[in-house]
Design a protein that fits this description.
The complex is a heterodimer. By secondary structure, chain A is α+β, with helices and mostly antiparallel strands. Chain A has 2 domains: 47 residues, no CATH class; 305 residues, Cytochrome-c3 Hydrogenase, chain B (Orthogonal Bundle). Helices cover 46% and strands 12% of the residues of chain A. Chain A contains 18 helices and 9 strands. In chain A, the strands form 3 sheets. A 4-stranded antiparallel β-sheet of chain A has the order 1-4-3-2. In chain A, strands 7-8-9 form a 3-stranded antiparallel β-sheet. In chain A, helix 6 runs antiparallel to helix 7. Chain A is globular and about 85 Å long. Chain B has one domain: 2-Layer Sandwich (Beta Polymerase, domain 2), CATH 3.30.460.80. Helices cover 12% and strands 28% of the residues of chain B. Chain B is built from 2 helices and 9 strands, in the order E-E-H-E-E-E-E-E-E-H-E. In chain B, the strands form 3 sheets. A 5-stranded mixed β-sheet of chain B has the order 1-2-7-6-3. In chain B, strand 4 and strand 5 form a beta hairpin. The N and C termini of chain B lie far apart (62 Å). Classes of the chains: A alpha+beta, B alpha/beta. The interface between A and B is large, with 60 and 57 residues.
Chain lengths: 422, 181
């Protein structure tokens, strides 16, 4: 598995499929370029199967892809710059919006970074509730992936089945946070509000019925001949190539690397939960599909255990320098009123330092690097977006591919362009 | 894990449970190879440039609201409680590394650079550095030497300036069709 250096310049290691010298680009050899048979096609930026605004400049020799250059940046909105101008607690709304499918995972990464700098502990109920919501979020993200990736390969009906189930997850988010997406339910120190009555009952209903829904999806795809022919052996990525290209999450695990941050560096309540990490060996589009379907089943198992083990008690820490005081105290306590005023107008100050926090988002290792100068606003925020890194692997996956495989391959990497461009 | 033999090591420090290894930019690639081949850091998670212009001089990232709108470049009202420790140079470049071992190990490899000072590319050590280094050039204007394709990645090819620098104002882009021709 270790990447071995070789003395030959330009070659990363023996047997690699990563193009050289530019790892993320397939360059047409000059002799092929001169042959006059090369057709250069712009795939995107507005193409229904690019999951956003991705532009691929593809050089075709007949149906063979001989050149590929991925161009991104069409959705760049300057989230990181904007966050430097917002107080810490207002900035929490930003990471959610960079990846609109895995909003809570991203939100958690930023909140966890603040908590690491502040050195505050969250109460057990908040920890378990966060774990539960992150897993529901993983189901939500994988459902969108499954629906759209299958749609692109012609399995249209699956989109409606997946969006149907996805709506049930969004209903749960609405119940808990008031909005269907970008809930901003995590607060530094715990949760923004207590879990509403009836949530656990509704969540239990979902967890009981959802596994049979996954069976239905599998009936439609797993052994379907067209699906197998479109996905098996397509978009190959070896384990060493995947690590060298920084791939993570389902893409890495489909290449045979048993690596999941929930197991490797357990955060939240994951250390106390019983779940498996699905790993497949072939590194093709089909295995990436199987991984995500299996992960949804594992997520339901985690949701089940979270519902059973959910502790009671406070949902947010009682550190008045960081957390808003309870509403009723504002009428009777001068101190509470001052704390409330200071936090709302000025925000809380976070100690000087730099931290890097990573979580296993539905797309892989989502990292958040935060620098604080001790003030009420972040000095620098940087996100390690797994989608951004996944797109670097398109060139390697597309080596020797046909133009029709391109749709399957780009789909299988599960990129969200908002996260790529930030 | 010991980092004594790391080529070009300037400083190793621990804070918030994280290890930061500051190395000499000239020996960055050597240090990267050492970390990958001898210590098993085969996974490059992220590369982050940070601009420390105005570090410790109050709040560079604030503004006053005024009656005529907001003044983007005025100093903020939210001054710091105490002056943070000074930084050796204007820019830092942090390479977040991960060893896929059990238990996993993480380390932050860091170099310090002045404005315009180049940093060698680590693309031959970790191919995933390709886009991260392009982003560092595009957003922060860090010249990366030895990169085979150092062009802008997120902004337009003909864009002026590097948006994530501290002296690049937020809202500094002219608003088109605003009626104020």
């Amino acid at each position: 598995m270790a990447v071995v250096a070789r003395n030959q310049p330009g070659v990363i290691y023996e047997g690699t499929r990563i193009p050289s010298p530019i790892p993320s680009m397939l360059v047409v050899p000059p002799e092929v370029r001169e042959s006059d048979d090369i057709l250069t096609v712009n795939f995107g930026p507005n193409h229904p199967s690019t999951h956003g605004v991705l532009r691929l400049v593809v050089d075709l020799d007949g149906e063979d892809v001989v050149g590929l250059n991925a161009l991104v940046g069409y959705l760049h909105t300057g989230f990181e710059k904007n966050m430097e101008h917002k107080t810490w607690w207002k900035a929490i709304t930003y990471p959610e919006r960079i990846d609109y499918l895995a909003f809570q995972a991203n939100e958690y990464a930023f909140v966890a970074a603040i908590e690491k700098l502040l050195d505050i502990e969250t109460p057990p109920k908040a920890t378990w509730m966060r774990t539960l919501l992150l897993e529901l979020n993983r189901i939500h993200s994988h459902l969108i992936w499954l629906g759209t990736a299958a749609l692109e390969l012609g399995a249209i009906s699956l989109l409606w089945y997946c969006f149907n189930a996805r709506d049930l997850v969004l209903d749960l988010f609405e119940l808990v946070g008031g909005t269907r997406m970008h809930t901003r339910y995590f607060q530094a120190g715990g949760l923004a509000e207590d879990v509403p009555r009836g949530f656990f009952t509704e969540c239990r209903k979902f967890a009981d019925t959802f596994p049979s829904t996954i069976d239905q999806y599998e009936t439609l795809l797993t052994n379907q001949k067209i699906w197998l022919e479109r996905t098996k052996g397509i978009g190959l990525l070896s384990a060493a190539d995947a690590i060298a290209l920084g791939q993570s999450g389902p893409v890495l695990r489909a290449s045979g690397v048993d690596w999941d941050l929930r197991k490797a560096e357990p955060y939240l309540a994951y250390g106390e939960l019983d779940f498996d990490v699905p790993v497949y060996e072939n590194g093709d589009v089909y295995d990436r599909y199987l991984i995500r379907v299996d992960e949804m089943r594992e997520s339901v198992r985690i949701v089940d255990q979270c519902l059973e083990g959910m502790p009671s008690g406070p949902w947010i820490t009682d550190d008045r320098k960081v957390v808003l005081p309870p509403r009723h105290e504002l009428h009777t306590s001068m101190e509470s009123l001052i704390h409330h005023f200071k936090i709302v107008t000025e925000g809380y100050r976070v100690p000087e330092g730099e931290v890097y926090v990573t979580v296993e988002s539905p797309r892989g290792e989502f990292g958040c690097y935060v620098v604080s100068d001790g003030g009420p606003k972040p000095w620098r925020v940087k996100f390690r977006a797994p989608s951004f890194v996944a797109l670097e692997a398109t060139a390697t996956c597309m080596t020797d591919a046909l133009v029709a495989d391109m749709i399957a391959i780009v789909g299988s990497l599960d990129t969200v362009m908002g996260e790529v461009d930030r | 894990m010991t980092f004594d033999g790391l080529p070009g090591l300037v400083e190793a420090r621990e804070s918030f449970g994280e290890t930061t290894l500051v190395v000499d930019p000239a020996r960055l690639v050597e240090a990267a190879r050492h970390l990958r081949d001898e210590l098993g850091f085969s996974f490059l998670s992220d590369i982050t440039p940070t601009d420390y212009l105005g570090w410790g001089e109050g709040s560079a990232a604030g503004y006053y609201g005024t009656a005529s709108g907001r003044d983007i470049n005025a100093p903020g009202s939210q001054a710091l409680a105490r002056t943070p420790a000074p930084k050796p140079k204007r820019f830092s470049m942090s390479y977040h590394l991960l060893a896929l071992t059990s238990p996993p190990a993480r380390v932050r490899l860091q170099v310090w650079l002045d404005d315009g000072e180049p940093v060698p590319s680590v693309i031959e050590v970790w191919p995933t550095a390709d886009w991260h280094e392009r982003e560092a050039w595009d957003m922060m204007g860090i010249p990366v030497t030895g990169h085979p394709n150092l062009v802008r990645i997120l902004m337009d090819d003909d864009w002026d300036g590097h948006p994530l620098r501290k002296d690049y104002p937020i809202g500094g882009e002219p608003v088109r069709f605003s009626g104020e021709e």
